[in-house]
Design brief:
heterodimer, A: 118 residues, mainly beta, 0% helix, globular, B: 111 residues, six-stranded mixed β-sheet
């Protein structure tokens, strides 16, 4: 079974530009979450999509947005890039199991996209 | 919101046991996780524990959970140089598919 794939793996942009990152979840997984990892702030939750709907959102400015397609693939977009947006962006997919929170639901992480803003 | 804290660095000798500690704030966390990250790689789930358990053992890994103190630990027995990595504690108190991570503990294993 193929794992979570993220493209591109590396990206260099300049301040003010915008960027789109892509995540393909494991086949059958309908939930996709995005995280930003930086040396200073660590791993921070950006947002989570399930069945094309944003279900949870972290504390990030509106420049960060995302969407999910009917095949569960997800994209995240960052507009008007700032130097501080340089980070490793990780995507995770999980299999939503009907039954509520007590059902274990492992998140599988992709290798990440390393974004450098110059 | 949820806050997760862990020590930043641990150095051990090969063959010793390693213990990485973590504290969390949200008592509604259902699952608590330990992830491993090697340089240039994503996150690999090592193990997890359900909040109504006190201990879980998985081969060389032992997770201890003290719900009263909101304290989680990961013990790695017979630590090997290949265990050198950053270890993250995570809790799901903020939502079902939303994890709050600690800053990570860098484990350095010397021969």
């Amino acid at each position: 079974k193929a794992g979570v794939t993220q493209t591109p793996r590396y990206l260099i942009k300049t301040r003010g530009q915008q960027v789109t990152l892509s995540c393909s979840p494991i086949s059958g997984h309908r939930s996709v979450s995005w995280y930003q990892q930086t040396p200073g702030q660590g791993l921070q939750f950006l947002f989570e999509y399930f069945s094309e709907t944003q279900r949870n959102k972290g504390n990030f400015p509106g420049r960060f947005s995302g969407r999910q397609f009917s095949n569960s693939r997800s994209e995240m977009n960052v507009s008007t890039l700032e130097l501080g947006d340089s980070a490793l962006y990780l995507c995770a997919s999980s299999l939503e199991v009907v039954g509520g929170r007590d059902t274990y639901n492992e998140q599988f992480f992709g290798p990440g996209t390393r974004l450098t803003v110059l | 919101g949820e806050d997760v804290e862990q020590s930043l660095f641990l150095s051990v000798r090969e063959g010793d046991s390693s213990v990485i500690n973590c504290t969390y704030t949200d008592s509604s966390s259902t699952y608590l996780y330990w992830y491993k990250q090697e340089p240039g790689a994503g996150l690999q789930l090592l193990t997890y524990i359900f909040s109504n358990m006190d201990m879980k053992q998985d081969q060389r890994l032992t997770v201890l959970l003290n719900k009263k103190d909101k304290h989680l630990s990961l013990r790695i027995a017979d630590t090997q140089t290949g265990d050198s990595a950053i270890y993250f504690c995570a809790a799901d108190g903020s939502g079902y598919s939303t994890l709050t991570f600690g800053k990570g503990t860098m484990l350095l294993v010397s021969p």
